[in-house]
Amino acid sequence: MPRTDSSLSDQLPRLDNQLCFALYSASLATTKLYKPLLQPWGLTYPQYLVMLALWENDDCMVSELGERLFLDSGTLTPLLKRMESAGWLQRQRDSADERRVRIVLTAAGRELREKLAGIPECMLQQSPCTLSELQALRLQLQQWRDHLVTLIPPASH
Prior knowledge:
CATH topology of the domain at 41-110: Arc Repressor Mutant, subunit A
Order of helices and strands: HHHEHHEEHHH
Protein name: MarR family transcriptional regulator
Number of helices: 8
Keywords: Cytoplasm, DNA-binding, Transcription, Transcription regulation
Subcellular location: Cytoplasm
Helix content: 55-70%
CATH architecture of the domain at 41-110: Orthogonal Bundle
GO cellular component, one term: cytoplasm
Strand order of the largest sheet: 1-3-2
InterPro entries: HTH_MarR-typ, MarR/SlyA-like, Transc_reg_Sar_Rot_HTH, WH-like_DNA-bd_sf, WH_DNA-bd_sf
CATH superfamily of the domain at 41-110: Winged helix-like DNA-binding domain superfamily/Winged helix DNA-binding domain
Radius of gyration: 20 Å
Low-confidence stretches: none
Mean pLDDT: 91
């Protein structure tokens, strides 16, 4: 017969007590807020992240981009193909090693940077936190992520 001890049920994991759920649901909410800001340019949130990374480091290998974004090639490759079709970037075989693919922004991809420059400010205005609070939160999350990455077996990266 199952125990109905209320103290035992209070000890069981509860969804709202889970850090993983708080991170996951905050990520979903954030993505939903970005959607209408990116929609006029036909960008999805993951594509926006790719563009942010490429604006920092254009002409990089797909593998480098995947490491930067914490995405595997199975996720990144279809995303890059759609972005290439949209005219924002080009995928080129590396001349030194045909197995490697370089990603290079097109003029349209570089121009998109100016058009999307106001998005971080829009997101800041929607936050109940100050800029310094958000910067502290970002730093904590980056430290947390960097620690967790060290715990993941190498084949799973």
